[in-house]
Amino acid sequence: MNSSLTLVKAAWISLGAWPALMASSRKRSAWFTRAAQRQAGRSGCSRLGATRVPPTPRATATRRPATVAPPAAAAPPAEAPDPIAPVRMVFPIANLTIDTQVEPMGWEVVQTANGPVSQWVIPRDIAGHHIDSAAIGQGENIVLSGHNNIYAQVFKPISLAWDNDRRTAVDDYTDRSDILNGLPIRLYGSDGKEYTYEVTEFYRLKDTGVPQQQRLENARFMRPAGEERLTIVTCWPPSNNTHRLIVIAKPAQPAQ
């Protein structure tokens, strides 16, 4: 009897307590669920199985390399203009006028008793432009040579113009005259233009029977002068070639 009552009481207790136990169980389940959610919150997840969204990266300025402009291409050097060669010369002297064509003139090496010597090869019928002298407008010495008493005698009027009565001695080998000073000489260039020069000096140089050093000194008039000038070279006297005549002319000043 007592044992039966005990079993019934136990069963009743078990059955009667079920709702409370279930409620308690639901409370515990809810508690565990909230605990799990709190834990999940602490672990960075908002709900079970959700993937945490990574924070949006903060925009940062990107340094770009400075743009360096390429160096400007160097302009090609300007082409030098062609030299203006003298092609014609007109020189009025008193009642005589020299009007001659001009061509480039070189030299040759000849054998002499004293060894090889270079000498100019002067054109026979026209004037020669020394190829190692300046062209027109280059600001240097333009040298022309021509015969006075052989072949075409293109520079004979210069030889005839020398007047011993109007000479001034410069040294033992050099005389000077002003007889031609101021006369115009017109050069015509390969560019088709006319260039006017004016005589400023006239020399006679002894060239035969003089020391070799003096002959070399006589050649100074054919060297660079550091200025624009025209130099004309021929021989004297008209019947021989013992001397050299030098005419120097400077660019004429424009008329005022």
Molecular structure report:
The protein has helices at 2-42, 156-161, 212-218; strands at 86-93, 96-105, 107-112, 115-120, 127-130, 141-145, 167-171, 174-177, 184-189, 194-206, 229-236, 243-251. The chain has 256 residues and is α+β, with helices and mostly antiparallel strands. It has 2 domains: 1-42; 86-251, Sortase, Chain: A (Beta Barrel). The protein has an 8-stranded mixed beta barrel. A two-stranded antiparallel sheet has the order 3-4. It is elongated. The termini are far apart. The model is unreliable at 1-33 and 35-53 (pLDDT under 50).
Strand order of the largest sheet: 1-2-5-6-11-12-10-9
CATH second-level architecture of the largest domain:
Beta Barrel
Q: What's the helical proportion of residues?
A: 10-25%
How is the biggest beta sheet arranged? Answer: 8 strands, mixed, barrel
First-to-last CA distance: 164 Å
- The whole-number mean of residue pLDDT values reads 81
Give the SSE order as H and E letters: HEEEEEEHEEEEHEE
| Low-pLDDT segments | 1-33, 35-53
- Gyration radius, to the nearest Å? 58 Å
Q: Class of the largest domain in CATH?
A: Mainly Beta
The CATH H-level superfamily of the largest domain is: Sortase
> How much of the polypeptide forms β-strand, as a percent range?
25-35%
General shape: elongated
